[in-house]
Design brief:
The structure holds 2 protein chains of 2 kinds. Chain A contains 5 helices and 15 strands. Chain A is of the alpha/beta class.
Chain lengths: ~220, ~240
């Protein structure tokens, strides 16, 4: 698979984690592809940390007008569902930090076997800031990381994160092009694997110890 | 007769209802003086009162804003003109110039999680001594020796769980953007223009609001006003959203 195919493969699998009625916050990049793969019978509500629920694609007519009263968290024009609502940033983070988001799906640079996540700063590189990421991973009921399994051949799923953390012990699930992993008190359990790779290859690409599930399934 | 008295009282009240002073963006910009702490609403410049920000001439400013805007746009305009001494924000990645200024030692940057930043502003406006948040515990956000971390961070344990004490953030002037104001200064927002604006309006000594429309008092209506006139000092009319 090329980079683009990998992204869509991961997004398609991540979409199956979403259940009817879920309130979901999606990170930038790969996670924004996920709504395309959510089934017709599954209605989710997207939360946008800049201040609304009911995030959807921008109405073409609004785009033509050239004045955008609705933007997504990246600052791009967006739309709102008929059952949506706008609110201020305090209320937005009441929803996020207060545990009212069912699932947040976001990318990461590193994840550790104890659920630590590092996805906002690389020492010595340009500082971007954490934005809403720290609140999201602390507050959401379930934190799902979608990312490529390795970075330039180097493992991203580690025994301990080496970059400054976004939060400690918050990640519940990791979905990569190689497999689906759950973080448990015993460590990282490989639940599904992509048959394009052998179990040995997946273990070699992972620094953290992988516990192979008794009920290991093929990733689709 | 009774009706006439009521009408008289109504007209008297109406005539005496104070109208908020409407000033130009330039006059608003001149209210900001060297060394002040200002709050600027907006999220990636959506909901930033750009006509006022562009007119600010003062230097050595401490700016509190969600982000650094874009290069030379929104708060980025103040950065580009070297007017900012210290920026407190949650995300600056979409303005390359911000990192350059920090690396060159020309500006100090403090990064706070977005949900923390807005609660610090709310705490100031609500007269609270700060907020306790689980966000940032166990990260460099809790470590004040880190250059981008705010000073004096403390961990406080409540019922066995650790929280960060985040102190209130106050300002001298808030530059906010609404969609419509009535002549008394009551404000209503639109879409994602809200973000930090309603909170900042409560946390500063002076509040200047840029709006796209000004309508007669009562036309927004008490059920729909979002920021009441008691918080607003001046209105600036900017019918077209200036870039």
């Amino acid at each position: 698979m090329n980079k683009e195919e990998i992204k869509h493969f991961i997004a398609k699998r991540a979409a199956r984690e979403l259940e009817d009625g879920d309130v979901v916050n999606l990170g930038i990049g790969l996670p924004t592809l996920i709504p395309h793969y959510v089934g017709q019978d599954v209605k989710i509500t997207l939360q946008s940390e800049n201040g609304f629920i009911g995030l959807c694609a921008c109405d073409e007519k609004v785009k033509e007008d050239g004045i955008y009263y609705i933007v997504d968290p990246s600052g791009n024009p967006a739309g709102v569902e008929h059952d949506g609502m706008f609110f201020d940033s305090s209320f937005s983070f009441t929803i996020i930090r207060g545990g009212h988001v069912d699932k947040t799906i976001l990318g990461s640079m590193q994840v550790a076997e104890n659920g630590d996540i590092a996805n906002w700063i690389i020492p010595g590189k340009a500082v971007h800031g954490m934005g809403g990421a720290m609140d999201l991973v602390v507050g959401a009921k379930k934190v799902i990381v979608t990312m490529e399994h390795t970075q330039k051949g180097m493992p991203k799923i580690l025994k301990r994160c080496t970059y400054p953390l976004t939060a400690k012990g918050v990640v519940d699930m990791i979905i990569t092009e190689m497999g689906v992993m759950e973080i448990t008190p015993e460590g990282i359990v490989l639940k599904e694997y992509n048959p394009q790779y052998t179990i040995e290859e997946i273990m070699a690409a992972t620094e953290a110890h992988l516990i192979i599930s008794d009920d290991l399934k093929v990733m689709e | 007769m009774k009706n006439t008295i009521f009408l008289a009282i109504f007209l008297y009240t109406f005539a005496n209802m104070s109208k908020k002073e409407i000033i130009t963006a330039e006059e608003a910009g001149a209210l900001i003086k060297d060394g002040m702490t200002i709050m600027v609403g907006g999220f990636m410049t959506c909901g930033t009162a750009k006509s006022i920000v562009n007119a600010v001439k003062a230097h050595d400013l401490t700016v509190i804003c969600n982000d650094a805007g874009f290069e030379n746009e929104g708060c980025g305009r103040l950065l580009a003109r070297g007017q900012v001494k210290r920026l407190i924000a949650s995300h600056v990645g979409l303005n390359k110039q911000c990192g350059e200024l920090v690396n060159a030692g020309k500006m100090e940057l403090k990064l706070q999680p977005q949900g923390t930043l807005v609660e610090q502003i709310r705490a100031a406006g609500a007269g609270l001594g700060g907020v306790l948040t689980p966000t940032g515990v166990g990260t460099i956000v809790a470590d004040s020796t880190w250059p981008t971390t705010m000073e004096g961070k403390q961990i406080i344990e409540v019922d066995g769980k650790e929280y960060l004490l985040e102190k209130p953030l106050k300002g001298d002037v808030a530059i906010i953007k609404g969609y419509v104001a009535d002549e008394s200064g009551n404000i209503r927002y639109k879409g994602t223009l809200r973000n930090f604006n309603p909170l900042m309006a409560t946390a500063c000594k002076m509040v200047i609001a840029e709006v796209e429309k000004i309508v007669p008092t009562g036309e927004i209506g008490p059920d729909f006003v979002e920021t009441p006139h008691i918080f607003i000092d001046y209105l600036v009319l900017n019918p077209m959203d200036e870039k």
